[in-house]
Amino acid sequence: MYHALGYATVHYFQAIMTFEPSDIQEAIRWIKNSSQVSSLFRRKQRVFHRMLARNPYEFYSEEEAHAELCFAESILERAMLMFIQDDNLVSFVKGGLKIRSGYQAYKNAVQLLSNHKWKDAASKMHFESGVRLGRGTYNLMLSILPKRLIKVLEFVGFTGSQERGLQELELGSSLPSLRSPFCTCTLIGFHTVTSVVLGTGDCDPSYSEKKLGECLAKYPNGVIFLFLAGRTKTISAKIDEAIALYKQAIACQKEWVQVHHVCYWELMWCHVFKLNWSEAVLYAERLSKDSKWSKTIYLYQQAAFMSMCSLQGPELRSKAREIFNQVPVHKQRIAGKSIPLEKFSVMKARKCLQHGWLHALAGLELIYLWNGFSILGKDRSLLEPIMVLVEQTVSELRKVRGTYSCHADDYSLAMLLKGVILIAMNKPSQAELCFHEVLLNEDFLVYNLYLVPYTLLELSMLYLQYNRFDDASSFLAQCREYQKKYILENRLHFKLHATMERLREKEGASRDMQVGQPAGDGLDIPTQSA
Predict the structure, then answer these.
(1) Would you give the DSSP letter of residue 330?
(2) Would the pLDDT of 78 be above 60?
(3) How far is CA 310 from the centre of its chain?
(4) Measured distance CA(128)–CA(107) in Å, rounded
(5) Which end of the chain has less Cβ packing within 10 Å, N or C?
């Protein structure tokens, strides 16, 4: 039973890292086999036992209990693959039903853990770690979803709590069990990747370093742990140390080249943070040739980084134009829909081809969209050269106002970036003025309409940072209710949800403070009218 699940899980990871149809079909085949094997050992449910027995779970053998857990894990893996297997609504609906089926199986496993009379302590420990892994992962997945999705999911029986999810994974990782490393990886992955990319960037690198120290002591060449150690250094803005760890992760194994691709991705961003554009171009080019995940995104990043190089000779401009032209060719659809970042890449590539990229700041825009400034803000030496670049661009754009058709788009982007950098430099008043200047340009934007709701969110986060709760709430409401269609809307709603949760936490903490105690840190930020 566990052999079947383990073999299926290896194929599952292979499939989600490659997106190759052949790998997906192979993974589905072995996951089906795993669920069938687990079903052979599952207890056949008898209605009268549930109706008459005080504790129906006492009838389960330990083998049947583990079969329930293995079945739940198999169903969850199968559901996730359904979303990427076909681009039609039927697969999407089937995937949702499978997830619900797996969710119910996990709920049954929770009852088994609490109510079954376990005879073997080791068996119970391994079962418990699996339950905590599944329960914790479900809670974390549901907790980061935007509010409008959560309402639908709660209606059909799904609930999620980030706090509960982290607690479950922490307990699972502390057990010396089969699934303990998976709990640890999920826990650290949430802190170092999910909370940064889809949240507000609030994370605790010291906690991740402590957990990883324990894991690397046991598995010094564990590729996943080495990658996560590199990611922990990245979010701490220790870029050179991160680069060394990613290279170590690449060197420690050759079987799974997909893990190499993830490390190349991180190495690319490390060089971007250092404004080493030529190295970043090389990693983006390597990904566009070797990785099957999204050639459109890789190609756009490659061209965008080339557009940031200081020496724009005829050969480089010709190469960049050639790559921009290739961006739309590889656009794909998953679960019947285009990938938002691919749509963004295609739109931006067309803008660069039609209007040029001299003032576009395409590379810095990508840093912002991947929430890279939450990392750069921890090291002022990384921020200062970026600020110089932004201010140079702002100065040049002011000279071509009225003659450059994309002036409002590029100028507003530059002002948003300047505002984000000023916040990291602890200059909130100046940052606020930059953000309001973006909002004043709303009617003149052609390509960068997304800047308006993103700026509204930045303003709300700024006010929240200094405990101006009414202003923060007002701008969050404007952001949530923004009516115009814009690109990367779903991406914004993840960050919006995280900010709203943070506002609720801070408001609750503020209410608990003694009357008259200052809530902020004394810094004066101009009001909106300023």
Answers:
(1) G
(2) yes
(3) 31
(4) 13
(5) C
Residue positions counted in the chain: 530
Q: Are 192 and 208 in contact (CB under 8 A)?
A: yes
Q: How many contiguous H segments (helices) and E segments (strands) does the chain have?
A: 26, 2
Q: Which two tokens stand for residue 47?
A: 């209605």
Residue 159: φ, ψ to 5°: -135, 150
Q: What six digits make up the tokens of 473?
A: 């709430």
Report d(CA 64, CA 60) in Å as an integer.
6
Q: What span, in angstroms and rounded, lies between the C-alpha atoms of 247 and 238?
A: 15
Give the span between the Cα atoms of 189 and 449, in whole angstroms.
32
Q: What is the pLDDT of residues 263-298, one digit of tens each?
A: 999 999 999 999 999 999 999 999 999 988 889 999
CA distance 298 to 286: 9
Which tokens hold the place of 305? Answer: 């980084």
Q: Which residue is associated with the tokens 């002022």?
A: 380
H or E segment at 334? strand 333-334
Give Cβ neighbours of residue 420 (< 8 Å, ≥ 6 apart): 368, 373, 431, 458
CA–CA distance from 468 to each of 9, 422, 478, 520, 521 (Å)? Answer: 48, 18, 16, 8, 11
Cβ count within 10 A of residue 11: 22
Q: Span 508-527, mean pLDDT? A: 54
Q: CA of 39: how far to CAs of 94, 128, 201, in Å? A: 19, 20, 42
With both helix axes pointing from N to C terminus, report the angle between 295-308 and 314-326 in degrees, rounded to the nearest 10. Answer: 160
pLDDT score at 97: 60
Q: Which two tokens stand for residue 69?
A: 């857990």
* Alpha-carbon 513 to chain mean position: 34
Q: What's the whole-number mean pLDDT along residues 242-250?
A: 96
Instruction: For residues 296 and 328, give the distance between their C-alpha atoms in angstroms, rounded to a whole number.
Output: 7
Residue 366, phi then psi, degrees to nearest 5: -65, -35
**Residue 46's pLDDT is what?**
59
